[in-house]
């Protein structure tokens, strides 16, 4: 690590902060667990906002896994990975909006109590991850994508709780669908931010070194 002080690493690979690696592993386990909980709860309650949040937990678990994989790689590869993750976040946003429109047409009214209980558990899980990631929120595109995912998750969890309250008070599924649509647009917005930063880093990062060609000498 001392050789990398001042950006002087000859390999172009950033030093890996062991604290950040540990945080990513914790976030990976928490998000994978909550994916299963919200998926089962969303289907049982008929809530599109819970299902949307479950898909988000799955995407975040994959996001943390990819981030662990690229730690220590050259900046150009980290930026390329962030570009892929940004595209995935955008696909998630489009999926959620499409699901909300489908549920609007079907007229399903979700169970508000199930939404509330699972929403509280999800908010607690994301608050833990956000507290651990807060110190790394201003890093490169990969770190920023991880932080944005967690931030959006907490906003989504609060929105799910508000949707549960709205469903309980109004006896209608419209609050659930509205929150799901907002979560979808948040995913699209975060995807745009990550893709823009990743493309900027790709333009400024040096290309990975290629091995010199092997010249075979002919015997005379």
TrEMBL record:
Which classification does the entry list for the species?
A: Bacteria, Pseudomonadati, Pseudomonadota, Betaproteobacteria, Burkholderiales
Transport listed as a keyword? yes
**Entry's SUPFAM superfamilies?**
Cation efflux protein transmembrane domain-like (SSF161111)
| Topology of the protein relative to the lipid bilayer | Multi-pass membrane protein
InterPro entries, per the entry = Cation_efflux_TM, Cation_efflux_TMD_sf, CDF/SLC30A
The record, for Gene3D superfamilies, names:
Cation efflux protein transmembrane domain
Q: Where in the cell is it found?
A: Membrane
Under what name is this protein listed? Cation transporter
Q: Which residues cross the membrane?
A: 23-45, 57-77, 89-109, 115-134, 154-171, 177-195
Q: Which UniProt keywords apply?
A: Ion transport, Membrane, Transmembrane, Transmembrane helix, Transport, Zinc, Zinc transport
Q: Where in this chain does the entry annotate a coiled-coil region?
A: none
Query: Domain of life of the organism in this record?
Result: Bacteria
């Amino acid at each position: 690590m001392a050789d990398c002080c001042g950006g002087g690493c000859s390999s172009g690979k950033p030093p890996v902060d062991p604290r950040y690696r540990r945080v990513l592993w914790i976030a990976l386990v928490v998000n994978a667990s909550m994916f299963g909980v919200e998926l089962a709860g969303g289907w049982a309650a008929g809530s599109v906002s819970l299902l949307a949040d479950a898909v988000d937990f799955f995407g975040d678990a994959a996001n943390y896994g990819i981030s662990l994989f690229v730690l220590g790689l050259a900046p150009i590869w980290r930026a390329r990975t962030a570009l892929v993750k940004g595209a995935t976040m955008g696909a998630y946003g489009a999926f959620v909006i499409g699901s909300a429109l489908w549920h609007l047409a079907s007229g399903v009214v979700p169970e508000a109590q199930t939404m509330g209980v699972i929403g509280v558990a999800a908010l607690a899980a994301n608050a833990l991850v956000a507290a651990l990631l807060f110190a790394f929120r201003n890093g490169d595109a990969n770190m920023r994508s991880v932080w944005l995912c967690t931030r959006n998750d907490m906003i989504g969890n609060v929105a799910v709780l508000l949707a549960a309250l709205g469903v309980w008070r109004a006896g209608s599924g419209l609050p659930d669908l509205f929150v799901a649509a907002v979560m979808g647009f948040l995913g699209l917005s975060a995807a745009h931010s990550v893709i823009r930063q990743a493309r900027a880093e790709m333009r400024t990062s040096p290309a990975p070194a290629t091995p010199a060609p092997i010249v075979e000498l002919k015997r005379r």
